[in-house]
Here is the input.
Amino acid sequence: MVRRAFLLFSCLWLFSGCGKSEPVIKIGFVAPLSGDQAAHGEDLRRGAELAIEQAQARGPIIPGFSVVLVPVDDARNPAQAVSGAKRLAADPHVLAVVGHLNSSCTKPASAIYHEARLLQISPVSSNPEISRQGFDTFYRICPTDDLQGPAAARFAIQRLGARRIFVLDDMTTYGRGLANEFVRAAKASGAEILGHEGITQGEKDFTPVLTKIKGLDPDLIYFAGMFPEAALLVQQKLKLGLRAKFLGGDGLFEQALITLATPAAAEGIYLTTLGGDIRQLPTAKLFIEAFEKKYGPLGAYSSYGYEATNLALEAIRRAGKKSRSAVLSAMREIKEYPGILGTHIFDSRGDTMIRTIGVYTVHDGQFQFVEASN
Amino acid sequence: MSAGDLFLQQVLNGLTLGFVYALIALGYTMVYGIIQLINFAHGEVFMVGAYAGLTVLLMIGGQGSAAGLVAALGAAAVVCLLLGLAIERVAYRPLRSAPKLSALISAIGVSFILQNAVMLVYGAQDRYVPAALPASGWKFGAVTVTPMQAVIFGVSIALMVGLQALVYGTRLGRNMRATAQDPLAARLMGISVERVIASTFAIGSALAGIGGVLFGTYYSTINFHDGYLTGLKAFTAAVLGGIGNVPGALLGGVLLGLLEGLAAGYLSAQWKNVVAFAVLVLVLLLRPRGLLGERVAERA
Amino acid sequence: MRKRTSLAFGLILLLSFFDPDPYRSEIYATAALYALLALGLNVIVGFAGLLHLGYAALFAVGAYTYALLNLRLGWPFWLGLPASGAAAALAGVLLGLPAIRVRGDYLAIVTLGFGEIIRVVVTNLEGWTGGPNGLMGIDHPSVGPVHFGVDSKPYYALLMVLIAFTAAACSRLKHSRVGLAWAAVRENELAASCLGMNARQLKLLALGIGGWVAGLAGCVFAAKQGTITPDSFDFIVSVMVLAMVILGGLGSVPGVILGAVVLSVVPELLREFTQYRMLLLGLIMLLLMRWRPQGLLGPASALFRRVREPAA
Here is the structure.
């Protein structure tokens, strides 16, 4: 009885795949859409969706083909990122991928896209090593951490007057990389690094390490990691009466940080971001209007999702045909791309030459722009 | 902050966590004492308690308050008590005469169901728990004790004293001890073994639920994954203290919390979990009866 | 009837090889990987009756062994395969040595504890294992001129070969003197010892064999993915494989393969419902234990016979 059921099932399965192919072009989108960093992934996705929607309204991107976004969830988990990448790579309708979000996911996935000759545009993965692997399929529209780290160090030492700093990171590709860049730059500027330790993502109780830090009495704590852990750190720091200033990276740039930490605890913390204040950019005005009309308040990463997707669409449009290699060549041909974040010029590694790093603070439960550097 | 103060603060942090472990450990230890089964779903009960408390706190307006905390504790206790009864009925009672493997698998199944159910209802992201009490605490030298920590100590100790009183001073307690010693004889003496087992699950689960609320308000964020790891550590605490032994659960919990806190503070936060698991493995291998447990005869 | 079913199965298998859809080939490859793991765990849990909740750790040992040998020493896949098997077998035995001294449910917890310890150690030893970000750039295998690459089909074929050998070996073992000895120890260790069987050695043998298979699977996994991270080897993987073994029928070689296929394919079918995956898995386990504890193809093993409560 079991055997028969299995036989029937297998036959159905095997023959169900005989379908026709439709005239559709897919753009893959991968980010954490579930789990603790889902808020970030959602931000990104909305930007991407808006771009696709606007493109669809303009008509077929290549004569005869409609374009569609295929969201895939990697739950900020590198293993899942690899599986998702393989899935997208295996689908012949996918001509480009926007993603991933976390550098620890983007890096292994980039190898898969490279093998599959599939264009990958990363919106916000800032670890410099990803573009140093020599993959001609990889492009990125944000500055890298070898810029963000030193900019943070500069801000900490010159603006915040920090001399004694304790560094924490979340041991991910992104966090560890950014922290190392910060430490290097801070030391070169004469600050004293009291310690550099790692915490694990998903961990809850940081009171032991914070107590240890309290004993060392630093001016500043620098945290290279993501907002869920940052929220807990900031909150537990307050409870312990640890008075050092707090500076983080772009991974903190999410409203959920303030909600989870409580506005009181988050008050006065600083963070660097991969770009300046988007509201000050005339090129972004139309986007902001359209986005806020559809989705409400702008998220931290929405503009990047939009920008990356539009860039992918442009490459496909220029390619003129449904072929991954044509899309890659077309992408290579793009010398200048005037986007909402500025005009992107890509260097030989695929990184953009837009190098603005912003600084924000939290005040009264909201992010406030402080300054930007190029 | 002097090294001594630092040490005291680390000890305090560890103790707080330890008391939470102890509350959960009680459930494990009681159930194991009666039916010689590790209730794999117990960690999830703790997690459900935390979410129940969150729901209550949100229902009364999202602002924390002492009254809110009490309401949350009460609600969690009731919800988890019922949940414990349900788990016993559904996952354990039908398999009473089946081998341990079946019950274990059944419990793991329940654990998965609960985790997923909570995820579906409350979302996969961390949820913020409104602080019930003011964050600033009392200073003893350079060491800070927050009101929440004081509440955790107070509530845990009160509950454990209450449990001891129950186990040694009431009829139900006597029945529980009898069933733990010899179920057949207990039955022959007229004790409803089914009732005793159900009560054990109920009480243990209620305690875990309270632990969950305390944990949630102390750390201010909860996630549906919290049950697994914390549950495992609480089980370690129960085993460390001597499974089946109520004061053992307290001792085990406190010791484990201290070990973990000190390891995180002095070694590295990264190796914290290894300490907990290493303790578990070592105790099971070298002294399975734990610190306060009695030597249990090998069943053939 | 037997022959016809086998023929039918063979036909289906053949067809699956020629399925052009790359997405589905990936599913077949994943199912095959899990089937191999299930076969290995079956030796430990089904044959020897040892409840092991840390099998993912042995899988990890296999994967990291090949990854490190390949990345640091340049070993090719075909050398890495036996090396991974051996390493995992050794790990299985070493971890088992202390563990088998304790009984039943404690054994389960000890193996769980070991599994978690290994995972945390791997996550933290960044210098060796790449830490939480894992290891990248692992070589794919090649057979003569054929390089395996990104396509799932060659891995599927390789796994089928491994499964065929492993399944045959397991069936042989089951009915051999060793298999009968395992059964004796499983049913009543005291009596078996009294009859002169060395329970300890038999258990360690099972752990070694189970480890060996996990090692092979780990090596193939690492080679296929090209990147491995500690996340791929956490507790849920151990539980999934255990569930497959139980679903299929403890001790039944074709059964556990079936169990693996079912539990790999069903979540894929329900991909819209990924959110409900754990819920369904939990329900399956619960219902299975309640109504068909012997699994889909398992014999009415004594392990699940309703036994009356023993007299105190």
Notes: The interface with chain A takes residues 1, 3, 5-6, 9-10, 13-14, 17, 124-126, 128, 131, 135-137, 144, 146, 219-221, 223, 225-226, 261-262, 264-266, 268-270, 272 of chain B (CB under 8 Å). The first helix of chain B runs from residue 3 to 35. Residues 263 and 272 of chain B are 6 Å apart (CA to CA). The first strand of chain B starts at residue 127 and ends at 128.
